[in-house]
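Morning!

This is the sequence you dropped in the shared folder:
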Amino acid sequence: MTATVAGPPHLTAAPMGKLLALGGASIDGSAYRHVVALAQRVPGWLDTVVSAWSAYGLLVFALFMVAGWWRARRVDATAAVTALAVPATVAAAYGVDAVLKLLVHEQRPCRTLTVTTLEACPAPGDWSFPSNHAAIAAASAVALLFVSRRLGAWAVAAALAMAASRVWVGVHYPHDVLAGLAVGAAVAFGLMTLIRRRAGTVAHLLTGTPLSPLLALS
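The structure's back. Tokens below.
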């Protein structure tokens, strides 16, 4: 278990040309402190599991995407096109989230508050709001709901666990992960709604091309 101790609390001044330099401690710093303190008191095996999920859990969403695509190929070409759009949708959600990070310069809580955390604090300039992990997880989950409700439901549960784990290991405030979930879900819902309406047309255009094997089992 890796522990880091941050410096004393401070507020970040808003730099010129930035939307906001958010002082997250004033929003839910006490809740964050409570969570990271709890992480120091639970059995070590639980911290190990949560830390592993926080670090590597996004790989599970990639597996969900592959499973969703493989299942969709057994349905029809339109379903397969919808499933193939999931990774691109997640990438778009990540892009939106990354832009927001550049606009809202919120320091990581482990750099603003004096705390001991499970995960090493990200480097200065690696901003906290919104959470990329939460955005990617939420976008994956919402997009997968358009492919398979059962698979999507599992992904929703995994996304919530990912968001919670990022606070548990000490690298995000609660509002960071909530915002990340909202960004990822909103972008994925909007894009997948548009994609589903046009999936049939795209499937027709791709049928008979070298990409046909991606659309249906032969």
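Headline: The mean pLDDT is 86.

More detail when I'm at my desk.
O.
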